[in-house]
Each structure stands twice: as structure tokens, then as C-alpha cells.
Amino acid sequence: MALPKRKHSKARRDKRRSANSKMYASNLAVCSNCKKPRMPHKVCPFCGFYKGKPVLVIKTVEEKKK
Ligand SMILES: [Zn+2]
């Protein structure tokens, strides 16, 4: 079985690890109803609309306290 001839340096190891752990800003879609940014393919958390139709009844902060 082939074996590595030399030990890879810590810098080389850490470079490889850091290359796969990039932080990406998630893509955001704009809600068709309230124009606020929302996650694509998800119901809008602000107005509860999905594909132009109301799907959820969004409670306001005061309603959640009750
Ligand atoms: Zn919305």
C-alpha cells in the first residue's frame, strides 16, 4: 500500500481544513407579499405567505405573550 513519504506540515493540514469550512452568507429571497427578505422555499416568517397565498397565521409579539 502506498504511504506518504513525508509528514505534512501543520500549516498544510490547517490550510486544508480551513478551505472546507468557509462561511457563506445564505441566499435570501424577497417575499412577494411583504417584500421582506426570507429563506427561499420557506414560508415567510413575517407575513406567513408562501407562493402568494397565506399559509400561516403569524402571531404578533403581544399575542405570543398571552
Ligand atoms: Zn412576507
Distance between the termini: 67 Å
| Strand order of the biggest β-sheet | 1-2
Derived from helix and strand composition plus strand pairing, the structural class reads: alpha+beta
- Strand element count: 4
Low-confidence region ranges: none
Instruction: Give the SSE order as H and E letters.
Output: HEEEEH
Biggest sheet features:
2 strands, antiparallel
Specify the helix fraction band: 10-25%
Rg from C-alpha positions?
23 Å
Q: Are any ligands bound, and if so which?
A: zinc ion
Percent strand: 5-15%
General form: elongated
The number of helices is 2
Mean pLDDT: 84
Describe the model.
It is a single chain. With 66 residues, this protein is an alpha+beta fold. It has a domain at 25-65. The protein is 23% helix and 12% strand. The strands form two sheets. It has a two-stranded antiparallel ribbon. The chain has a two-stranded antiparallel ribbon with strand order 3-4. A hairpin with a 6-residue loop joins strand 1 (29-30) and strand 2 (37-38). It starts with 9 loop residues before the first helix and ends with a helix. The mean pLDDT is 84. Zinc ion is lined by residues 31, 33-34, 36, 44, 46-47, 49.
